[in-house]
Amino acid sequence: MSKQPILQIENLRVSFRIHDEYYAAVDGVSLTVNENEVVAIVGESGCGKSALALSIMGLHPLERTKLEGTIAFKGKNLLPLSVPQLNQIRGKDIGMIFQDPLTALNPLMSVGRQIEESMDYHTKLSSSAKRQRTLELLKRVGIPNPEKTYDRYPHELSGGMRQRIVIAIAIACEPSLIIADEPTTALDVTIQAQIMGLLKELQQQMKTGIILITHDLGVVAEMADRVAVMYAGEIVELADVNTLFSRPLHPYTRSLLHSIPSVQTRKEKLHVIQGIVPSLQKLPRTGCRFKSRISWIDESEHEKNPILREVAPGHWVRCTCYKNFYFPQDNIGDMNYGIS
Amino acid sequence: MLKFILRRIVIMIPQLFLLSILVFLLAKAMPGDALTGRLANNPKMDAQTLAEMKEKLGLNDPPYVQYVRWIKNLMQGDLGISYIHQQPVTDLLSERIGNTLLLSACILILSYIIAIPLGIVSGRWTNSLADKLIVGYSYLSFATPLFIFALLMLFVFGFILGWFPTGGSVNIQVEKGTVDYYISKINHLILPSLSGALLSTVGTIQYLRNEIIDTKIKDFVKTARAKGVPESRIYSRHILRNSFLPIAAFLGYEITGLIGGSIFLESIFSYPGIGQLFLQSIMQRDYSVITALVMISGLATLLGTLLSDIILSAVDPRIRIE
Amino acid sequence: MAFLKVNHLKVYYPVRGGFFRRVIDYVRAVDDVSFELEQGETYGLVGESGCGKTTTGRTIIGLIKATAGEILLEGKDLTKLSRREFYHYRKDIQMIFQDPYSSLNPRKRVLDIIAEPLRNFEKLSPQEEKRKVQYFVEKVGLHPESIYKYPHEFSGGQRQRIGIARALTLNPKLIIADEPVSALDVSVQAQVLNFMKEIQKEFQLTYLFISHDLGIIRHMCDRIGIMYRGQFVEEGTSEEIFHDPQHIYTKRLISAIPNPNPQHRQEQVKLRQEIDKEYHNSYHQYFDAEGRVYPLKRISETHSVAIP
């Protein structure tokens, strides 16, 4: 596998204005995505994964967002670019797939036109050539009867079909990077399997890099090459997928893996992470951000200013608290659900 | 489509029937009858002639007989005779309905011409100075009573400045069909329609503004941005089309409302339309005209909702009428 | 006698057409469904969106009227009861809803939210009511003082527990949980699921657990019914469904679950392809000419499959 980086995020901070004060939802994230590589960003709601995804193409409302750091796409920093400059890249070099295929499509425009639209701005194709290419794309994303579907409106298609349309839009101009924000979350499990298969297949054909944003570790296990686990705006662990699932280190990663009900084995109790995710305004900005949720671990195990450290080749972990981390026996299934 | 319209029209029949009963009962419940007005005009009329006339007109028949007679005539297009004007109501109305429709159309078009650009500016650049001014204007116009505003307009532009005529729908000295005739007609329309339009924009502005604010954060707009669609096209192709839906849907109702709202405007500007006629008829208890007008506005309401549905199905692919 | 017995339940919605809007067809949301729940067990209804699982749940609790069939709660047919009679049974069945954000009235205090069923069914003095609400609030792991707060002051998991407290106040026998954790994050989801298991033991509850998430169903349920287009495809114990699925639809559903071990990625893809092939090749063994499944056929004491 070639290791040509296409996206290099350096020390990214994404802050949102809440009552005249800026709060960082993404706080010092560095991440590289290589060509032909699927990098998953996994975490729970509010961890900053979606804010990160939207900031790459500058899709946040400008008037109340502050972006700092660098997001270099093929060596060029995207952050200082104006919207018209970004429009040269959006849809052409970077494609995006959204979570809910029903709301992600314009209800008043035929799906064929919606796929074609990005070609209007990024290619000089004639309208018949665009139509031809759209029909090919429809076929490529597994839509039976492309001719007929071209003139259909989103509401006339099933959820799975709609998500295929969203994917066709994303790949219309053969981008070298696709950002997929929870691409299968709104879908039924059998459709999810189909869409995951389709994405994987397209990625292998086009050698595209994919940033896969998801909360579903099952989807990560099936799709990703590398995984970044995010908690409270920071990456807490970064590793290749096999390492992450076979030898997870950070307490948050381990807790997450413990709290998912599994189809294979049946446990009486699931692991419960104490407390709740602090809100953006109340987030402690110094020290280990996961500290309050593993209160049985001694203070001295944490670092003062935890950094993401490479503990094995390609395996990065934040803070030293992972070294002596354990699950307390009595924590499992206790009645203290974190009165806050 | 045709089937749908036919079906809706068929459904209208029982609705109109119910309305007719209601209108008839209301008219009967009002003090006085068709002759009271005439009596007032002609003090010489004695009690005996009055009784004879009552008998002749069938006013002594039981109410249901009167109702059946009325509805029978109604279905034949005979709306009765106006006792005040001493001419068939149909003739009376046909003169004025055209004027009212013209005025309503002018108000509607003018109010859209004013409201749509303002609504777009307001919704696109929310919280900007322009937005604040526009919102201020729309609140002000919402709070201003039409009859005061119209009187003010009439006073300033009609009497003080003398730019526009202060009454009527056309200069009667001009010969019908000439260019001057049409110019005079337009000249008479400007003041009432502007007064109406300036105050009726608030609904459209607020609707459009809110729709745009709601639509611009929708996911499909994000999808369009992620495609690299320029900002101006984001608005023209994606946001505005979706934001216009409720306004298009509202058009039918708007028309109905305008016809109802013409009462004030026409009275203030002495504009000979059905609104003015309606007010006069109520004052003078001209029942046959009142009942005819209520029936007509009822029909207009039903047709307005039908029109709304048809427009909506034409612009929104999700609503398809087979 | 079964605690809850659903017999040939049908919920049809008319499809109208033509000039006079006559009924020309029916949408068979629930089409001849029968199953039984024993007291104290958790029965899972699984299927993809539109399969009729939610409609089934809502029909049992009386939110939707059954077109035909019986719902026997401890031998009493709920579908035949008058409104007044049903009222008494209504408190034996409670529901937990999917979205903790929209199922609690934002303008009401937790006290009023939880006390609402009490006020409908029992005449309690304000003190008694408060004591009872606080008891349940503590049971669901919230601070007793939190009864004066409003829903927005709580996290998603806490809100769902408020919803559960509300369902518990009338000592129900059966709780219908419709996707109770789908709107929650994984760690919060674990909290709520653990908690549901605990109160089940404590209050001897019977659960009808409706979900599309097979992992959660596997974790929670003793027995499972798989639904497809309004009908049952397969029914059996958790073990049977997950380790010995018989119907091609069940197999497909189970193989579609993401495999949490990245090392088995290739095998999982292969398995799905094989099952897809089987699905297409042997389609007519499992589905009739109209694409509907056959009636259930018992293949063991506990396991039934819809095969001809």
From TrEMBL, chain A:
Cell membrane is among the record's keywords: yes
GO molecular-function terms, A-Z: ATP binding; ATP hydrolysis activity
CDD domains: ABC_NikE_OppD_transporters (cd03257)
Keyword DNA-binding belongs to the record: no
Major location (coarse): membrane
ABC transporter domain mapped to chain residues: 7-257
Database matches in InterPro entries: AAA+_ATPase (IPR003593), ABC_Ni/Peptide_Import (IPR050388), ABC_transporter-like_ATP-bd (IPR003439), ABC_transporter-like_CS (IPR017871), Oligopep_ABC_C (IPR013563), P-loop_NTPase (IPR027417)
GO biological process: peptide transport
Membrane topology: Peripheral membrane protein
GO CC term, one of those recorded: plasma membrane
Record key words, sorted: ATP-binding, Cell membrane, Membrane, Nucleotide-binding, Transport
Subcellular compartments: Cell membrane
NCBIfam families per the UniProt record, alphabetical: oligo_HPY (TIGR01727)
Protein name, per record: Peptide/nickel transport system ATP-binding protein
Lineage, uppermost ranks: Bacteria, Bacillati, Bacillota, Bacilli, Bacillales
UniProtKB/TrEMBL annotation, chain B:
Keywords in alphabetical order: Cell membrane, Membrane, Transmembrane, Transmembrane helix, Transport
Domain named ABC transmembrane type-1: residues: 97-308
InterPro entries xref list: BPD_transp_1_N, MetI-like, MetI-like_sf
UniProt membrane topology term: Multi-pass membrane protein
One term under GO cellular component: plasma membrane
One Pfam short name: BPD_transp_1
Gene3D superfamilies: MetI-like
Any one biological process term the GO annotation gives: transmembrane transport
Localisation per UniProt entry: Cell membrane
Residue ranges crossing the lipid bilayer per the database entry: 101-121, 133-166, 243-269, 289-312
Domain of life: Bacteria
Similarity comment: Belongs to the binding-protein-dependent transport system permease family.
Protein name as catalogued: Peptide/nickel transport system permease protein
Organism the protein comes from: Thermaerobacillus caldiproteolyticus
From TrEMBL, chain C:
UniProt GO MF annotations: ATP binding; ATP hydrolysis activity
Gene Ontology BP annotations: peptide transport; transmembrane transport
Keyword Transport: yes
Keyword rRNA-binding belongs to the record: no
Keyword terms of this UniProt record: ATP-binding, Nucleotide-binding, Transport
Transmembrane segments: none
Domain ABC transporter: residue ranges: 4-254
Organism: Thermaerobacillus caldiproteolyticus
Protein name: Peptide/nickel transport system ATP-binding protein
Pfam family name, one: ABC_tran
Matching PANTHER family: D,D-DIPEPTIDE TRANSPORT ATP-BINDING PROTEIN DDPF-RELATED, TRANSPORT ATP-BINDING PROTEIN
Xref: Gene3D superfamilies: P-loop containing nucleotide triphosphate hydrolases
Protein family per UniProt: Belongs to the ABC transporter superfamily.
Superkingdom of origin: Bacteria
